[in-house]
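Inverse folding, one chain.
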């Protein structure tokens, strides 16, 4: 009897700040305090009210924008979309679960999305793109050399590639996928403790191919960079099992 009862217990899920923000916005919509068409307060005000950094607010808004639940105008601010409250509630629930339910599927999606992004970046990059990529790479290498957390610098390097692709849909999708994945992979050392140094070499190879506008070489370099985590995901293990390796 005791064993059966124990088996019914489930791990406690700790919500990220982004998920908490999204859930609070959902509650405001469900209670009618936020209605379709209403304008949200500015990011600075939201960050103060939620007592979190603006980056968390920005990420939450970005995810909701990506799914069409919020709309942002540079001139007038961010608004709740015109969808019904019932549809908004269901979609927000799916967004909160999106990056948790199938870690392996997200890795696979990121792999093929990044291959597309780097091909386009190699073909379309500008001098400014190269400058941005070199800056991101230098920042990443500096953190790795000092043995300090380089999660944000890693993320920025990949996002600069997406920006160089000159495809707003790909860039938006990358901005949704990459932050959660890189944080999980790097912070939990899924690919090993020396991954930062190897990734720096791989980043250099990717940048070199983009600089030469060698589309095939850029794709091959990105494939090499992401192959290790892709192969781990193909084992069918959960994120927790991958972390335990």
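Residues assigned per position:
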């Amino acid at each position: 009897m005791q064993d059966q009862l124990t088996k019914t217990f489930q791990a406690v899920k700790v919500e990220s700040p982004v998920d908490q923000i999204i859930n609070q916005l959902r509650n405001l919509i469900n209670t009618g305090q936020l209605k379709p068409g209403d304008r949200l307060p500015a990011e600075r005000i939201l960050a103060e009210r939620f007592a979190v950094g603006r980056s968390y607010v920005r990420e939450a808004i970005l995810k909701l924008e990506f799914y069409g639940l919020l709309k942002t105008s540079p001139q007038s601010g961010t608004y709740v979309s015109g969808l019904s409250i019932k549809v908004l509630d269901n979609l927000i629930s799916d967004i909160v679960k999106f990056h948790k339910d199938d870690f392996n599927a997200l890795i696979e999606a990121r792999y093929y999305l990044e291959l597309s992004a780097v091909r386009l970046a190699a073909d379309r990059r500008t001098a400014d793109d190269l400058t941005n990529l070199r800056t991101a790479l230098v920042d990443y290498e500096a953190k790795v050399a000092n043995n300090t957390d380089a999660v944000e610098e890693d993320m920025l390097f990949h996002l600069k590639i997406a920006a160089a692709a000159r495809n707003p849909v790909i860039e938006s999708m990358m901005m949704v996928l990459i932050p959660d994945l890189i944080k999980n992979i790097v912070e939990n050392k899924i690919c090993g403790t020396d991954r930062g140094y190897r990734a720096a070499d791989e980043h250099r190879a990717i940048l070199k191919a983009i600089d030469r506008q060698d589309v095939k070489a850029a794709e091959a370099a990105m494939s090499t960079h992401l192959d290790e985590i892709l192969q781990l995901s193909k084992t069918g293990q959960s994120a927790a099992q991958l972390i335990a390796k």
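The radius of gyration is 20 Å. Residues 104 and 139 are 29 Å apart (CA to CA).
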